[in-house]
Design a protein that fits this description.
Radius of gyration of chain A: 17 Å
Strand content of chain A: 5-15%
Bound molecules: adenosine-5'-triphosphate, magnesium ion
Largest sheet of chain A: 7 strands, mixed
Number of strands of chain A: 7
Largest interface: A-B, 37 and 37 residues
Structural class of chain A: alpha/beta
Oligomer: homodimer
Distance between the termini of chain A: 14 Å
Order of helices and strands of chain A: EHEHHHEEHHEHEHEHHHH
């Protein structure tokens, strides 16, 4: 069964996009078929995967607001095999206000993903993972992603403010689970930009592991400038610096995620 | 005349909150009277300034949705003299959807700030600076902040994704300037988390200076773990580590901002 994973955290700059694109690349490199959906108007995931996403390009906006099927807007990633991408364009910035008054505004993405998976299956093509990159907010775009997914992966930057928003995020996920999507659960928490030399990183990591003992992945992602450089070359760190600590830690995280499976 | 400065950037984690609270503390330390308004539902600025902001506390939500005057919700900062704070609480998370259908939804904050400044002036109390910390989005909360302000200060993290969103941000500010607030302009850009050892930082800094030669402040903020540690003690770095590079760079930035003045 396809694993549909939403990468979410309303705190900004915690590594949502970095995690979405590098996990997708690591999984794809091991032969998994991956669909990446960029639902952040900034379009950072589209950039990192070298997908054109100008105002004239088809995008997730067409799926959410005009009912276009995913198969009409999806593009193959030029830098990594086995990855298909639905890009985000600047049009998406106005989508939340437009969605407020739309019928079934929260379930547009879920319906589109299920259609895509079913149509591929009918042609004998598997879809092993769907990975959704969210903007740093809990508005209707992220709610669409929560309604569409079965699992949430929360990246947490090992810094103080990261702890503050966590209870708000988990409460929101519970609310969605209680109303729009009973299958949804926080299956994984990934500690990012972990710097074992600083007391702050160690304290935050300990605190998160204490609160979520079953969800925090063993693998942590160290701070690495190669990870930050890769998007300026339109690449993931998996192809940009394949033997560096950044790539190795995301390959390790992907292996741990595959091993854990989706079972709650 | 009071300088009303909005700290905005829809890219997450670029140092908006860190800049808002540390600039406020640096200005207040030199005797300026500063009002800080936290309009981010995460409430990180309220935390850094040690302001209680539980669900039962009065907050910016009451000002925007119930028409409460700022004087009824403002609290004095316990760690730094000369700073008054309007905190954000978790209730604010639902405010954007609630504001969509409210009359004069974009100008609520502007009216409240002007009333506050006028009432203080009538009592002979100056308000030298109003600093507004925004969430990482361009929704109605940030639009309220753009409509209320005269100046925008854009913090830019010296990393690749930071460049992507800049043109979208500047275009949004132009739109507001053309409709809701003709006084609004991007007066300052501050380079944050600058690491002179990495090529990435230097390249991004050069690119931003080339595009915005007049707005980029001379002062840059280095990456410093003391800055990241301060909020876990409910302090700004100005009081937490007063002689470190973090505090010194924000004191220098505050002096540069005061010298430049508001004249465009
Ligand atoms: N492990 C890491 N080491 C070094 N830099 C990193 C790491 N992970 C992410 N970064 C950098 O930190 C910044 C923030 O990461 P990213 O943009 O992925 O976060 P995000 O949560 O998607 O942000 P937003 O909230 O704006 O969507 C980026 O410039 C990215 O390149
Ligand atoms: N110069 C710096 N050196 C080291 N760490 C910093 C620096 N500036 C900010 N930080 C840390 O980086 C993280 C992001 O900064 P901050 O929260 O201020 O950004 P933001 O733009 O307000 O984020 P959001 O988009 O979520 O509102 C925080 O953990 C903060 O402590
Ligand atoms: Mg992102
Ligand atoms: Mg902030």
């Amino acid at each position: 069964e396809t694993r549909i994973i939403t990468i979410a955290n309303q705190k900004g700059g915690v590594g949502k996009t970095t995690t979405a694109v590098n996990l997708a690349a690591a999984l794809a490199q091991s032969g998994q078929q991956v669909l990446v959906i960029d639902i952040d108007p900034q379009g950072n995931a589209s950039t990192a995967l070298s997908i054109p996403h100008g105002i004239e390009d088809a995008s997730i906006y067409d799926v959410l607001l005009d009912g276009a099927p995913i198969k009409d807007v999806v593009q193959a990633c030029p830098t990594v095999d086995n990855i298909q991408v639905v890009p985000a364009t600047i049009e998406l910035a106005g989508a939340e206000i437009e969605l407020v008054t739309t019928v079934s505004r929260e379930t547009k993405l879920r319906e589109a993903i299920h259609t895509y998976i079913a149509e591929r299956a009918a042609q004998g093509l598997p879809t092993h993972y769907v990975i959704i990159d969210c903007p740093p907010s809990l508005g209707l775009l992220t709610i669409n992603a929560f309604t569409a997914a079965r699992e949430v992966l929360i990246p947490i930057q090992c810094e103080y403010y990261a702890l503050e928003g966590l209870s708000m995020l988990v409460r929101n996920i519970e609310l969605i689970r209680g109303s729009l999507n009973p299958d949804l659960w926080v299956s994984m928490i990934l500690l990012t930009m972990f710097d074992k030399r600083t007391k702050l990183s160690l304290e935050v990591a300990d605190e998160v592991r204490a609160h979520f003992p079953n969800q925090v992945l063993e693998t942590t992602i160290p701070r690495s400038v190669r990870i930050a450089e890769a998007p300026s070359h339109g690449e993931t760190v998996i192809t940009y610096d394949p033997t560096g600590t950044g790539a190795l830690s995301y390959l390790e995280a992907a292996a741990e995620i595959a091993d854990r499976g989706a079972i709650s």
